[in-house]
Amino acid sequence: PAYLGEDSQGAVTRPGIVLESSFATGLLARHLDRADARTSLFLGLWSLTEAGLGARAKVWPLIAACGIVLLAFGNEFDGLDNAVYLNRELERWGLAPTHNLLSWHLVQSPGHYYLL
Asked: Can you tell me the distance from the alpha carbon of 2 to that of 84, in angstroms, rounded to the nearest whole number?
């Protein structure tokens, strides 16, 4: 089944996997074990960079706490240059000293990139 927003009642789960609505305030962070956050993966395949700035801002504390971050993004979304945006946020949240950062172009999808 698929759930949207508050209809999800928090999360749709399978063993080891959580799909959660960003509409439910504060629920996302409860799945991160702060004692072992550096072993957690944040996976955002176009979702982060195709969200409004308000939604993006809510997610950055969680991204910064994770030890592994994998994002896929396009050049721009709604007139916002995603490479410039991501560079600014990575610097703002201090990820460069704590993470090895790598970005590459998706050959099969012009104008799209991965950031690890």
From this structure: 33
Beta bridge partners of 45: 72
CB distance 32 to 68 below 8 Å = no
pTM over 0.85: no
Angstrom distances, CA of residue 37 to CA of 14, 22, 91, 103: 20, 20, 19, 22
What pLDDT is stored for residue 6 in this prediction?
Answer: 44
Give 78: exposed, middle or buried? Use CB within 10 Å, 0-12, 13-18, 19+. exposed
Q: Quote the CA–CA distance of 92 and 8 in Å, as a whole number.
A: 32
pLDDT digits (tens, 9 = 90+) for 20-57: 655 555 666 666 666 677 778 888 888 889 988 888 88
- Sign of the Cα torsion 2, 3, 9, 12 reads positive
Q: Rounded distance, CA 16 to CA 6, Å?
A: 22
